[in-house]
Specification:
The protein is mostly helical and 357 residues long. 62% of the residues lie in helices and 5% in strands. 36% of the residues are buried.
Length: 357
Amino acid sequence: MLTTLFHIPSQITWGTGSLPLFGFGILLAVIGAVAVVLLATTAARQGWRAAVSLLGGPLLVAAAVVAFVLPALDDGKGVPIRGYGVMLLLAAAAGIWLSVARGRRMGFDADTILALGMEIFVAGIIGARLFYVIEYHETFFPPGRPLRDGLLDAINIPAGGLVVFGSLPAAGLAAWWFAKRRKLPLLRLADCIAPGMLVGLALGRIGCFLNGCCYGGPCDLPWAVQFPPESPPWVDQVQRGLLPSPAADQPASQPEVWSLPVHPAQLYAAIDAALLAWLAVVFTPLARRQGEVFALVLTLHPLSRILLEQIRVDEPPALGTPLSISQLISVGLLLLATALWWWIARHGRLCSAEASL
């Protein structure tokens, strides 16, 4: 577990004074310069209207994050760089890279996939965070807590707290709207990006491991892991009575008690997503109709999620059933996958010859 990697100072010393790095400062100026270069480069190939349409939205979001969100995250030492947030960025980069490589072989240029990847990433993060905040609203907005404090915690995404199934509808709507605007075949586009999304999920789950969330139940296997005091598994085990509650007058010299050994459920999920990504890539040249790669992912991922949820203990049963909310959503996705397979068999377009990626 490595929640915070380091802090970035909010002020950069310059001579006898200092300049703000975040807010309306140096980083925003850098983003402005990069935006000009990207827009000019894209406009030279596709025209200004297309350049603004492709890159305008994501660049504005990036500018808003730097100007307003990052200053709000300053904890007095600077802006903390969380292991979870770093892994999210690596997940986005790796997923987009694979999608660009596949796109070249499936008739999509790199600019299109980059723009789509940025829109899906932003939409997916918003959807995943919104789902998490709604599911655990009592943590963010308990009675008597100032609304401002709850909202600041709600937007503190690098500290952890995303639900994969919350990202799916938001990312799906973003992809549908992107394909509609560009008049692109939606299912072929979904086939292109499906393995990349799984690669991103695999890296994101490593971020969960660094953050200590999405943990498994106690076990005595050789690869079981322990988490430090105040981590989510430790707090959960104290609340369940599996660990003694620390006394207020406990001597500072007394060694801290870590959590009981638990399943590294986050790493199980990372391996699962990586294997599914590999399978989707291998299956691509075997697919006969557009949409089959995405349908395969939509079938296998919920199945594996249902099984992995048996190991996790961080989500209680939901809606009066023995299943967690993630398992219930997985059942719904399996029904959707069944309908998608039926539609592809009846109406799907035949695939053209493609490379393995």
